[in-house]
Design brief:
about 160 residues; mainly alpha; about 85% helix; flat
């Protein structure tokens, strides 16, 4: 059995003038964008068919009606509300007796002060500044590559949708 033909299977190596391999990167981005666009178009089609099936057979509406009927018979929502209220009252009682909230807030304030002090020391470090500059540059390059890939994917998706 022969393998199915696809744009991913017919990648032809191109040589770039500057030898940096940009043609390979561009072709790889193009293949990934095509695959993502076709997959997204298939997903959208499947979702639409599932919605049509649900509307035709009224599955969601029927299930919702059965759940509501069961809830009215058993009074589950009412019982859960009463149980939650009882638990909340018990939690308040324990909190007042043990002062958990006050102790927690004191610990949070102490940790916040320590973080602020540490943050001030870190901000003044030249190593941190140099690392942040490098990270920012790397992130910008990745963001630009993502933007190019996203644009190609959107274009391929629109093309795949229009070919239906």
């Amino acid at each position: 059995m022969a393998p199915p033909e696809s744009s991913a299977a017919t990648i032809e190596p191109k040589t770039s003038i500057d030898g940096s391999g940009r043609a390979y990167v561009s072709k790889a981005q193009d293949v990934v964008a095509t695959v993502l666009a076709k997959g997204s178009a298939l997903r959208q089609d499947a979702v639409n068919k599932a919605k049509e099936f649900d509307e035709k057979h009224r599955l969601t509406a029927s299930a919702s009606a059965k759940v509501m009927s069961f809830d009215k018979r058993v009074r589950l929502t009412e019982k859960l509300t009463v149980g939650i209220s009882a638990v909340n009252e018990k939690v308040k009682s324990v909190d007042q007796r043990l002062q958990v909230s006050d102790k927690t807030m004191a610990a949070i304030f102490a940790a916040e002060k320590k973080l602020n002090d540490t943050g001030s020391a870190v901000k003044s470090s030249r190593y941190v500044t140099a690392g942040a500059a490098w990270f920012s540059g790397a992130f910008s390059k990745v963001a630009r590559a993502g933007q190019v890939a996203g644009t190609k994917t959107r274009d391929k998706f629109n093309l795949a949708i229009s070919k239906k």
